[in-house]
Amino acid sequence: MSLQLTILGCHSATPRVNAFPTSQYLEINNQHFLIDCGEGTQRQMRKYKVGFSKIDHIFISHLHGDHFYGLVGLLSTYGILSREKEMHIYGPKGIKNATLQMLKVSESHAKFNMIFHELSSKESELIFEDDKVSVRTIPLNHRVYTNGYLFTEKEKARKLHMDNISNYVEIDRADYLNIKAGKDVILPTGEIVPNSELTISPKKALSYAFCSDTSYKPDIIPIIKNVNLLYHEATFLADREDLAKKTKHSTSKQAAQIAKDAEVGQLVVGHYSGRYKDISLFQKEAKEIFENTELAEPGKVFKV
Amino acid sequence: MSLQLTILGCHSATPRVNAFPTSQYLEINNQHFLIDCGEGTQRQMRKYKVGFSKIDHIFISHLHGDHFYGLVGLLSTYGILSREKEMHIYGPKGIKNATLQMLKVSESHAKFNMIFHELSSKESELIFEDDKVSVRTIPLNHRVYTNGYLFTEKEKARKLHMDNISNYVEIDRADYLNIKAGKDVILPTGEIVPNSELTISPKKALSYAFCSDTSYKPDIIPIIKNVNLLYHEATFLADREDLAKKTKHSTSKQAAQIAKDAEVGQLVVGHYSGRYKDISLFQKEAKEIFENTELAEPGKVFKV
User: Fold this and answer.
1) How far is B219 from chain A (nearest CA, A)?
2) 3-state secondary structure labels for all residues of B99-157
3) Greatest CA separation found in chain A?
4) pLDDT of residue B96
C-alpha cells in the first residue's frame, strides 16, 4: 500500500508570476490520478516529471477557471502525443459540452476516447472502483456546484501465517481460501482455531481526501473521518473570516478544525489568496488547532 | 511614432518546462494590442509587466490550442479584476461560441462587453482603424483557417514650418489648414510656393506584420512589403522542409526568403519545434538569406 501526493499548483485564481492554480497528482496503490487542472497544469506536469501516459482518470472539483481551464489544453496535448488509451474525466454537469466544443473549434483530432462522467448529486457517491482503489465524492459548499474526492485503497486479503498453520496437521490446503477470507477453522475435535492465529493482517489501506473549494462545512467530517492525508483549502486567514464566508471559502483555522474533528493523519492547506505575501501564516494559524499541518507548495510531495 | 513588440511566448504546441506558446504584446502609436493567447499567457503578461487594463483589442491568428487556449482564462481574469471597458476580440469564426460557452459553464460573470469580430474572408481585409493605427488581416496557409495581422501607424499631418512661412507676409493664418493638408500656396503675384517649403514631414509611419502559423506563402509579400518589423514563424530548419510542408509550417530559410523578398526592416523568427534543442540554429540559417534576423524569446523586446 502506498500513497504519494504531488502538488502541481496550489494558489487561488488571480494570475501571479510564481502562483499556479490548483492541480495535484496522486499515486495511490499503483493507480495514477490527476485532481483539478487549472491553466498551465500540463507545464507543471512536465516540470515535476509526471508521466503523462500513466494518467487515465482526471477528477475536476468544479468548473471555475482556476481548477479547470488547463483541461482542454492537456487533452489536446494527449492528442498530439498520439494517445490511444481511453481517458475518464469526472466533473460537474456541463464539463463535457464545453470541453468538446473547445476541442472541436480547434480541430483537435484525438484518436483516444474521452469518457465524461458528469456529476450532479448532492450526496456522496461512489464514482470509481477497481481492485486497487475506490473514489467517492465529497459534496462541498462553494459558489458553484463543487465536489471534493475521497480516494481509498482497497483492503488486501489477509495473508496465511504458514508457521502457525503448520502446527495443525488437520488443516488442509483446501481450507486456505476460507482462512484468507477471514474464517476460523473448526478441527475434527471440535476445537476452534481463531483466524487471527492463522493469518497476518495486510497493511492498512490508505486514504486521501481532497477538499477544494468550500466554505467551512463540518458535515463532510463523517465522510473523511480518519483519512491519512487531507488537503483542505484555506483561502484566507481567520482575520478575514467575513470574506471567506462571503466568497464561500475557508480560513486556515477552519481547515484545521475540520482536520481535528475528522481525526486525520496529516493536513495540507492551500489555495492561498494573493493578498497574503507570507504563506507561512497559514501553517502557523492551523497548527494552533491541528499540529500536523503542512503547506501546499508547487512541487512539494507528501508521502504516506 | 513608436513601435515596441514584447514576446510573451514563442514556442510550438507540446508543453515543455521552459517553453511558452505564442503570444505577443504590441505597443504601436500608443495603442496596445495582444496578439495570440496560448495557455499561460496571462501569467507571462504578469511576468513581463504588461498592464492588463491597457489592452482593448486581442487578435487571434487561428484556433489551435497553442495560440488560443489562454484566452478564456484571461477574459475570466478581466472579470475578476472588475473590468468595465469593452474588449474587442478578433479571430476565426467559431471563437465566440467556444469562448462564451466555456465562460458560461464556469459562471464567470464579467461586467464588461466582449465584442467578437469573427473572420472568415480569404482576402486581406481592414478589420480595425482609428486615428492612430489600422489593422489588416494577412491570409495565411495552415491546417486550419489562419490570419496574420498587419499593424500600421496612421501618417500624421504635416507640420507647419513657421520660419519659412514667416518669409511670406501674404500667407495668412486662414491658409494654415490647407498647408497642413499638403497644398501649395499661390501668392497674389501668381508665384507658387511649394508645400515642401512650408511644411516639415512627420515622422514616418511604422508597421509590424505578424505571420503565424503558415506554410511558405510568397503571395503575402505585397501585403507586408517594406514593413519595419516582421515576425514570421519558423517551426523547422531547412533539413525538415518535408515536415514543414506536411504540417503547413515554414522553415527558418523560408521565413528569411519572405523577409528578403518583402524588403522588411527586421525579421523575428519563432514557433520553434521542440525537436531542436539549440534555437540559435534558426538565426544562423535565416541570416544566410536575410542578415537582420533575430530570435523570438520570452520577454525579449523589439523596438523600432
Assistant:
1) 25
2) HHHHHHHCCCCCCCCEEEEEECCCCCCEEEECCCEEEEEEECCCCCCCEEEEEEECCCC
3) 76
4) 98
Q: Which residues of A touch B105 (CB under 8 A)?
A: 63, 94-95, 97-98
Q: Is A55 on the interface with B (CB under 8 A)?
A: no
What is the per-residue pLDDT across B190-214, written as a single tens digit (0 to 9) for each? 999 999 999 998 888 999 999 999 9
* Helix, strand, coil share of chain A (percent; to 5): 30, 30, 45
A14·B65 Cβ contact <8 A: no
Mutate to test the interface with A, among B43, B52, B75, B247 (most CBs of A within 10 A): B43
Selecting from A40, A65, A73 the residue whose C-beta is nearest the C-beta of B108 gives A65
Question: In sequence order, what are the beta bridge partners of A285?
Answer: none
Q: Is A91 on the interface with B (CB under 8 A)?
A: no
**A62 in a known ligand binding site:** yes
pLDDT digits (tens, 9 = 90+) for B209-233: 999 999 999 999 999 999 999 999 9
Nine-digit cell at B269?
Answer: 523568427
CATH 3.60.15.10 fits A3-156+202-303, yes or no: yes
Chain A residues touching residue B60 (CB < 8 angstroms): none
Q: Each residue of B116-132: pLDDT tens digit? A: 999 999 999 999 999 99
| ipTM of the predicted assembly exceeds 0.85 | yes
Strand partners, B87: B114
How do the residues of chain B divide into helix, strand and coil, expressed in percent and rounded to 5? 30, 30, 45
**A143 interface with B at CB cutoff 8 Å:** yes
CB contact under 8 A, B101 and A97: yes
Q: How far is CA A126 from the centre of its chain?
A: 13
Burial B195-218 (b: 16+ CB within 10 A, else e): beebbeeeeebbbbbbbbbbbbbe
What residues does each domain of chain B span? Answer: 3-156+202-303, 159-200
Q: For an interface test with B, give the residue of A105, A142, A248, A273 to mutate (most B CBs within 10 A).
A: A105
